[in-house]
Amino acid sequence: MYKINTLTNDIEKLEERLFKDLGFRERDHLQEWIAKNPEVLGEDLLIIQKEFSGFNDTNERLDLLALDKEGNLVIIENKLDDSGRNVAWQAIKYASYCSTLTTKQILNLFQQYLLQSHSEESADDLVMDFLAIEDEELYLNSGDQRIIFIANHFRKEVTSTVLWLITHEIKVQCFRATPFTEGENIFLQVEQIIPLPETEEFMIDAQEKKREDLEKGQGLSDTRKTQLDFWKIFKTRLLQFDEIQKLQTPRPQYWFDIALGKSGIHLSNTFNTDRNEIGVRVYIGSKNAEEWLPYFESKKSHIENFIGEELSWNPNPENRDKVITLLKQFDLNDKENWDEAIDWLATTTIKFRSIFMELIKTK
Hints:
Blueprint: E1 2-5, E2 10-13, E3 15-16, H1 26-36, E4 46-52, E5 62-67, E6 73-78, H2 87-98, H3 103-116, H4 123-130, E7 146-151, H5 156-167, E8 172-182, E9 185-194, H6 197-215, H7 222-238, E10 258-262, E11 265-272, E12 277-284, H8 286-298, H9 300-307, E13 312-313, E14 322-329, H10 338-362
Parallel strand pairs: 6-7, 7-8
Antiparallel strand pairs: 1-2, 3-8, 4-5, 5-6, 8-9, 10-11, 11-12, 12-14, 13-14
Helix pairs in contact: 7-10
């Protein structure tokens, strides 16, 4: 970085420094600068939490949590002179934890942050004003979560992971923060390095083209095209239910994941033309299995009465991850049967979602 000297019509090079040599610390300084001036990241962001540790069953804490102008959550991880090896993995975990946060929970988190900052302002009002919403119903975190990394130096392990995530449509950005000095004066440069701003639009266009090709079934086998066609119709049917706000892009052999309000527990669907079988399952990750599977089993009669069919409870007990499933046979190779199959699958999915979310909330 150079300073322009208009008196001599020349430029003077500023000295690039390390944060540690200047006595700056991650939480006390860089994090505070970003929290007070999020616009240095090139967009309008609303910081709603700092040092957030309110995740279930873990003491981990993310540096900064923000909202973007679309109402989606942005996980911001700050490092000083070295990104470290594990920052990408940490942020992915935080994004997964945040994926189940509801609008009410997000507003509560923001209100707590305001109280800690000795502000008497209303979280609801600030968010509505930030999103330029007046009479519309507030609905936050409807899209995928974003991740932003800030560091002076990024290790290859991190940059390669970030580039791979971007190619798989995970929204990640890396910003290099560099301090400079001139005598007693200290300057800070923050610049986006991944993806480069001038190539970001091209990458988005390339991903859109890839998604369009996938949705058209280009390069797929007949079996995969059949699966893709089924999921497209199913998605349209399922979205008719008001409580399902967003689903992923249909993919061949894709299991539609639907959050149930508890990290590590989610709902998914399956479609198998070889076995002429479709189904719904509740997936319980290994970390939650010992607590939640017995709890759900204790409510077995209530669950099955609500759904109207008997379920298969933990059909693969040797697996650490646990599932509760309901499968049904249809002649899926005959598309005339698809309307009936899709109606059953959509209705059953909503029933699963309703009863399991109710039980999770009331536990």
